[in-house]
Amino acid sequence: MKQLFIPIFILIFFNLSLAQPYNAEVVKYNTAIDLDGESLHKSYDISIQINTKEGLNYAYIEIPEYSLVKVKNVKAFITDINGNMIRKLKKKEIIYKSNIGSGDFYTDDYRYTFKMIHKEFPYVLHYSYETEQKEFLTIDNWEPNFYSYIPTRTSTLSLQLPQDYQIRIYENKIKYEKEITEDGKLKYQWDGEEYLPIKLETFMPPINDVLPFVWIVPQEFTYEVNGSHQSWQTYGSFIEQLNSGINELTDKEKYKIDLLVKDIESNKEKIETLYKYLQKETRYVNVSLDVGGLKSHPASYVCDNKYGDCKALSNYFKSILEYVGIKSYYTLINSSKVIEEVINDLPSAQFNHMILFVPLEKDSLWIDCTSDFSCGYVGSSIQNRNALIIDGENSYLKRTKALAKEEVQQSRKVIIKQGLGIGADVQIYSSFKGRNYELLHQIKTDFENSRKMDLLTDYFLEDLMQTPDEIILTSSKLKGEIILEYHTTSKTMIQKMGNERVLRIPKMSFPSLEKPKYRDYEVQINYPIYQTDHILFEKPLNSKIAFIPKEFELESEFGEYNIMVSENDKYIIVQKSFHLKAGKYKLDQYEDLYQFVAQAKKKERQLMIRLNN
């Protein structure tokens, strides 16, 4: 075997010297899966080349182990670039510990960790391990790129299974080869090309739209209960059956609920009242236990403990609504800032969050039971995407409400006066909705004052102005908005030039777009951007207007940008609006999108008012 050792590594590292230098790179990433009809066996074989001291963070290895996925045969060694052995991993160097994260309350997941550091570069870390699983919903969700920020030079996925074992496969930008092995098994294989790190771009689609991947699921499965990926109806039936018999409230809880709703007739008002009770009495914690985190704790568990994860809180609130005669449905959704479309043709566990869908006579509600916001508030992480409504054999996909421009509006009122001496005295009132409302609400409630001030200064205050002594944040759950108010000064907003004073109009913020020649990916704007400005310049005494901007309108398929200027006895009034529509745009549309934003930016830079002294 030693005679074969060096030639194998020569093949692995061939031509690496010609590649672009990185601090580290994955030179081999192989996954072999064997399905024997009862268990799922996986073998992983990975080699990482550490090129510099800065790449040593990739020498720290973590291997996750879950309650239903057992890890065994962890091995590792390091070699030089020519494949000569340097040292092997010792068993005592492997640490086995809980995989609990900062946002977790409890988990029964664990991880194996070790590090293999060497002082001479480059060197290669090789490690392998195996996993075994008796019950599973997914055979594999494989991407040929192992890490996001360093290249993967070669990768393979192979799958062997009995010929009569039924599976479903979804492939994106990669195709399999299939053969029958000597022992009569069916073998699939996917060979990945060389994958370089993804270049991040503004408004880029989700990574799964950009990179190749393979998703493989069994047609039929047992996961505590029997289930099927034949259709969304069969998968929904599985989820419903898995979470059946867990909706009983305690007598104490029923008594409290009866008191809360005894004088309320309207179902919507009952829901809103009970939702406030949910928010007041319970808290969200991440608990990952039992059947891979898919099965909820009973409603009585939340009654007693006053906490739960998204499944437990959704089941608890569903049970409360059911108790007062209101029908609601478990709803599985993929919660993320970037909309990741459900693969409609692959019914499977594509979701990471549970909410409730409550159909009402006039207006249905999407209720996130982990949210701090108002009842039925559709946040940026669940808006405008398909969700699975769980209704047994009648389960179906339904799209959540898309945020309208008025629901993401950022409106700003600025009052500017001539300061004492040089500069301007500025009062700012900014209203935020949508994603910025959610971020500001988190800053307001989760951070100490000093950190709060730093975050507001870095991300929400105006450029070229002095940091204010005080910032007032006032939020309204009912309106879904937060007001940011402060008083400051600016030395650059009003400047003297010869016999004139130049008033520089505060600029809007625009998305930073790459020049078209550098753009590689299509565009996905997940929700609208809508900004409005109402700016009032107090007229100085004994001054006359030498120049004010003309009205301006810019319209495009991507949105609109407008300027209106007027005056009264006291103020020069500048009103502006910028609207960028949500949507998906092809790469050949990017030039027009770029030019639309560039024209609006250019106009903003030119905006000024000149006064004669």
Task: Please specify the SSE layout and strand pairing.
Elements: H1 2-13, E1 24-35, E2 40-50, E3 60-65, E4 70-80, E5 85-88, E6 95-98, E7 104-107, E8 110-115, E9 123-133, E10 140-142, E11 155-161, E12 167-172, E13 177-180, E14 186-192, H2 207-210, E15 213-218, E16 220-223, E17 225-228, H3 232-242, H4 251-261, H5 267-281, E18 283-284, E19 286-288, H6 299-305, E20 307-308, H7 310-323, E21 329-333, E22 353-358, E23 365-367, E24 386-389, E25 396-399, E26 410-418, E27 424-433, H8 434-446, H9 449-459, E28 471-476, E29 481-490, E30 494-497, E31 500-504, E32 523-525, E33 529-538, E34 544-547, E35 552-556, E36 559-567, E37 571-580, E38 583-585, H10 590-606, E39 608-612
Parallel strand pairs: 1-11, 7-19, 18-20, 26-33
Antiparallel strand pairs: 1-2, 2-9, 3-8, 4-5, 4-9, 6-8, 10-15, 11-14, 12-15, 13-14, 16-17, 21-22, 21-24, 22-23, 24-25, 26-27, 27-29, 28-29, 30-31, 31-39, 32-38, 33-37, 34-39, 35-36, 36-37
Helix pairs in contact: 5-7, 6-7
- Strand order, sheet with most strands: 5-4-9-2-1-11-14-13
Number of strands: 39
Provide the low-confidence segments as ranges: 1-20
Described by strand count, sense and barrel closure, the largest sheet is: 8 strands, mixed
Mean pLDDT: 91
- The backbone outline, from C-alpha atoms, is globular
Helix content: 10-25%
- Number of alpha- plus pi-helical segments: 10
The assigned structural class equals alpha+beta
The whole-angstrom Rg is: 30 Å
Beta-strand share of residues: 35-45%
CA distance, first residue to last residue: 91 Å
